Input
Amino acid sequence: MAEVTVKQLAEVVGVPVERLLQQMSDAGLSQKKDSDSVTEDERQTLLVHLKRSHGEDDEAGTPRRITLKRKTTSTLKVEGSRGKKTVAVEVRKKRTYVKRAEAEVPQDEPEVMVDEAAEAQRKAEAEAAARAEAEAAAQREADEKAKAEQERIDAETRRKAEEERLKAEAAATTKEKTGRKEEPADAKKDHKRKAAAPKRNEREERGPKPGKGVKRGQGFDASFDDNRRGPKMARRTKLKAPAQSKHQFERPTAPVVHEVQVPEAITVADLAKLMTVKAAEVIKVMFKMGAAATINQVIDQDTAILVVEEMGHKAVAADQSSIEDKVLDDISYEGEEASRAPVVTVMGHVDHGKTSLLDYIRDTKVTAGESGGITQHIGAYHVETGHGMISFLDTPGHAAFTAMRARGAKATDIVILVVAADDGVMPQTEEAIQHARAAGVPLVVAINKIDKEAADPDRVKTELAGKEVVPEDWGGDVQFVEVSAKTGQGIDQLLDAVLLQSEMLELKAVPSAPGVGVVVEARLDKGRGTVATLLVQNGTLRQGDIVLAGLNYGRVRAMLDENGKPVKEAGPSIPVEILGLDGAPSAGDEFAVVADERKAREVANFRQGKYREVKLARQQAAKLDNLFANMGADQAAVLNVVLKTDVRGSLEALTSALVDLATDEVKVNVVSGGVGGITESDVNLAMASSAVIFGFNVRADGGAKALVEKEGVDMRYYSVIYDIIDDVKQALGGMLAPELREEILGIAEVREVFRSPKFGQVAGCMVTEGTVYRSKKIRVLRDNVVVHEGELDSLRRFKDNVQEVRNGMECGIGVKNYDVKVGDQIEVFSVTEVARQL
Output
């Protein structure tokens, strides 16, 4: 054997390099590293040392033969009758080295083992393997005995069944020959056996159950029973027993992937049904994802898509716009049409008597209930007059409620424009005319306060004619009626004019159809939840109907008329209050009665998602548009406001009014706006955003009051819109940068210039105007042009330092860091800060 390295020899022998180096060192060899070479003589020396270390030696001092053994152990998992089991696999290698001079070494020479511990371990494992093999053999023998016994029992059962079948066939043949009508005594039993025969044959084809002596997947072997029976029975058995049984069902080899249409919102149970899995599996997956849910919980589209993809299926976002169109298109308005009452909106300027006029018609005191005597909500009233039924909408006249008046015009059939006879046409009067024209609604003008001494109806007609609202007696098409809400003068004529205009419009509706209309107002009531005022425009709204209103939906739990009395249904042109919506819709949103609550929820969730997307897109566009415009500009001061109101219409009107107060330097940011009382979450939001809390006709609960007092948050209550706007104007004015105003205090003319070694340049001056002060700023004017702006270095009169020198007196002035000339004028001025008003 040629020279090898210590590492190669260690690999051949099967021992670690470190151990081999130690043995070589003990044998007196010089190798120290695994790369050192080992000669043939050195290997023989090592072998002699190893043999001596085991207590053996020969005459020549060298071994004739040495045997090296090596083994490796691993595990292998295999299928067995009782499932998967682990089997130990041992690989053994043996190599014998013989001295070349004595190749004829007898085979019975003793073998020398390099590793005695490994040999002992091998023997222990061999004994364990022998015991396992014995146990396996015993188990196989027991299984074979059980199999033989089961096959014997099955063969006996089949033999008896075959004998009974032959007896039955023989009896039937005898009956046909003799023509007897009697059936054998065991006929019913035979029928039962025949009916059970297919199932029995099927069990025979499948073979015995696992654990009864035959493993799953093995067929029945008929040769065992054929050898024990006679040849006749064996032939019968061979005709019926199949050669090899097969499984009836096969498990899919690959997972089934479904394409799942995910709507805007879906319950966990419905999502599991779409994926054809158990709801518990979906809940388990969501729990692992960190989103615990119940089986009936509604999840949004994004979460559902993540769950579907996590479970290995393909998720497709459903087109909800088609669902929305389908839900609304399914509403049928076919039926017998009938005349309906007109919906009349009363519009006009502030304090022109709109509510007082309606108050007289309804014979109530609505005005007394409004804060400050002005209307701040949209009121809907169903009035039975002697001239017929009319539904009135009373809209506020203040400029802040422009959006509310616009919604009122869209929901109405006729507009009564109220103009005070002593006041004439005002800005809000013109706005009401514009809204009515934009909605295409006819006008009826009521000239109110005709009972006053300063009333001038002709002036009102002239001003309205200038706005293209021409009276009928002047050749126009608008009815003018002179009324007095105080005395009742002209009220009947006004109602006649409204009904006449209604007859000309030929208003029709289908009472049998599902109810549709418009949301007049909505608010949150602490005891009743969301209360929405609806105006039914077509069909009939009934208690228990499912209503889809804007971004919200719900079942009508209760309905109340304008007097607070419960009603069961409301027909066309009837305003009602309903309870049961999941949120407060916006004033002006359309509502419709739908048949399926699940579809209504899907459409509402789709609209909410669409609204969020549009809102975010609008905000992003605004940011991009203002990105370059704001570069380099000073940051505008912002007044953060948390606004809570009693109704939704007031919230929108106040938000619009406050935002409109913004200028280039200051603006109002409505951090949060909502309907209902002030809660602790509102206070926490105000603390986080350094905002002021405004409550309009609402109050804070106990927890919120305690938190406000503890943290010192600015919270204010209001009941009149003017007060909020005035306070915000003052606050914004205080945030404006003050205005700087300059005031010229005095002027001194330079008559002579002197130079002093102690003071430097000194100008001899005469004060020609005002007073020159030592501590004020100065400007140097040369030929009426400012050439320097700075401060006085000194101010002297004769030899004394003075603080001021009045008009007509001489003085010496030292200008800091500037050389003046004869004829220059030194202007002394002061700068004052003046607070600005918004």
In short: DSSP finds 21 helices and 37 strands in the chain. The CA atoms of residues 36 and 77 lie 43 Å apart. Residues 146-240 form one domain.
